[in-house]
Amino acid sequence: MATDRRRHAGALLLAMLAESSARPERLDIVRATLDLVIERRQLHPNVEFALGALCFAHDLANGAGEAVFVIARSAGWIAHAIEEYARGASSART
Predict the structure, then answer these.
(1) Of the residues 18, 29, 34, 81, which has the maximum number of CB atoms within 10 A of its CB?
(2) What confidence tens digit (pLDDT) does each residue in 2-14 have?
(3) Who contacts 11 (Cβ-Cβ below 8 Å, separation ≥6)?
(4) pLDDT digit string (tens) for 18-41?
(5) What is the pLDDT of residue 71?
């Protein structure tokens, strides 16, 4: 189920990328890469691929993708911790 959510998020981000001001020649490379991976491996884009595509298509600074990923992951961990505290979890995972 988590894989389906990640696949959906990846497809949504790629659709948004197509509507953005991404550099057209780089967007063409992203599309060609995506088509090839789907054709050869039957794999669909996930959120990590979409983040990489966003950074590449917009020629973002080195490290920008990692920064976005870490911030998003941290927000997810915090949300999970809040849920656990709210339900009274007796032990926290470390």
Answers:
(1) 34
(2) 567 767 777 787 8
(3) 44, 45, 50
(4) 899 999 999 999 989 988 988 999
(5) 95
DSSP annotation string for the chain: -HHHHHHHHHHHHHHHHHTTT--HHHHHHHHHHHHHHHHHH-----HHHHHHHHHHHTTPPTTHHHHHHHHHHHHHHHHHHHHHHHTT-SS---
Instruction: Note whether 51 and 69 are within 8 A (CB).
Output: yes
Cβ neighbours for 30, distance < 8 A, ≥ 6 positions apart: 14, 17, 53, 56, 57
The tokens 């590449």 sit on which residue? 56
